[in-house]
Amino acid sequence: MKKILFAVLTMFTLSASSFSAPIVESIELKGLKRVKEELVYKELLLKVGDEFDNVKLKKSIRNLMNTHLFYKIKPEIEKHDDKVKLKLNFKERYSLIPLPKIRLKSNGSVRTGIEVRDYNFRGRGDRASILFTKWFGKDRDNGEMVSASLLLYKFWKNRYNLLIGADYEKTYDNELYQDKVLESIYDFENY
Predict the structure, then answer these.
(1) Among residues 142, 90, 85, which one has the least CA distance to residue 120?
(2) DSSP string across 80-142
(3) What is the pTM of this model?
(4) Residue 176 forms beta bridges with which residues?
(5) Average pLDDT in the 31-42 region?
(6) Residue 170's beta-bridge partner residues?
(7) Confidence band (pLDDT; 50, 70, 90) for 16?
(8) Do the Cβ atoms of 39 and 67 come closer than 8 Å?
């Protein structure tokens, strides 16, 4: 009886091992031009040596698409024996974008300028932007503004972003009234 039980347990163990999930043997990244590999590996839920899981692969692709750095990610899965070779083919978005700005206000003044955004500064998903705005208008509504910002992606504990920025604004010919009487006209600078 012990021999029969041992034989059944041995067959069950052998058959169970043949049904185990294949192991990720390698991960190959193709098509990366500006994005650094470390950013991709940071977002992947599958690592070399892990058991292959389709759900983790789909979530990894979702994480990568949520960075807004890619148009398309096409996975190729090559299975042999109980190992998987994973190839990810990337098509990156163009990350440097100039944005014209124009704003018409109800008092007749016009604000116009340009903003340049880089959605992949340093190749790690960091975002940088520079904005220059100049406004012209009636009734002494004139000025200019320069703004710069940098967002460091997953800067702390691989989870939190850090936003750093600086602004400069200057307005011309501001009027100071006291008791409805014009006291002075001045320029104002704000940092």
Answers:
(1) 90
(2) ETTEEEEEEEEEEPP-EEEEEEEEE-TTS-EEEEEEEEEEEETTTTEEEEEEEEEEE-STT-E
(3) 0.64
(4) 184
(5) 91
(6) 144, 189
(7) very low
(8) yes
Distance CA 183, CA 56 (A): 68
Tokens of 186: 């001045």
Please return the burial class of 159, using the count of CB atoms within 10 Å of its CB with bins 0-12, 13-18 and 19+.
exposed
Question: What is the structure's pLDDT at 31?
Answer: 94
Name the residue type at position 68.
H
Please list, in sequence order, all residues whose beta carbon lies within 8 angstroms of the beta carbon of residue 140, skipping any fewer than 6 positions away: 172, 173, 174, 175, 185
pLDDT band, very low/low/confident/very high, at 15 (cuts 50, 70, 90): very low
| Structure token digits, residue 62 | 């979702």
Phi, psi (rounded to 5 degrees) for 16: -65, -35
Given the structure tokens 């300028």, which residue do they identify? Answer: 113
Structure confidence by residue, pLDDT tens digits, 137-179 = 765 668 888 999 999 988 888 788 899 999 998 888 778 888 8
